[in-house]
Amino acid sequence: MYNAAHLIGRGLLWGNGIAIGFLLLQKYFGIIKLDPQNYYVNEAPVDINIFYILLLNLGTVFVCLLVLLIPSYIITKISPVKAIRFD
Q: Between these two residues, 85 and 51, which has the higher pLDDT value?
């Protein structure tokens, strides 16, 4: 579980760094342009909300660890004697 949490944290760190980098590029340089005839703005607007980013990361860690914990809990309930018995 510690190893999985470490890998999840590392992936979130890299993912957040890349995603926030792209968001900052769009916010300050407006890389993604929109057609003003179809939209009311010239470029795609970006809102960087730290609270939402942290909430999403906490939810991701919670769901990933829960998905890892549930099967291991179910496996502990299986008796080895019943698993290898042939009927």
A: 51
Contact 44, 32 (CB under 8 A): yes
Structure tokens that stand for 20 in this block: 């926030």
The residue type found at 44 is A
In whole angstroms, what is the distance from residue 65 CA to residue 67 CA? Answer: 5
Under a CB-based contact definition with an 8 Å cutoff, are residues 62 and 8 in contact? no
Amino acid 81: pLDDT = 80
Whole-prediction pTM value?
Answer: 0.75
* Angle CA 5–56–16, to nearest 5: 70
User: What interhelical angle do 50-76 and 2-29 show, nearest 10?
Assistant: 160
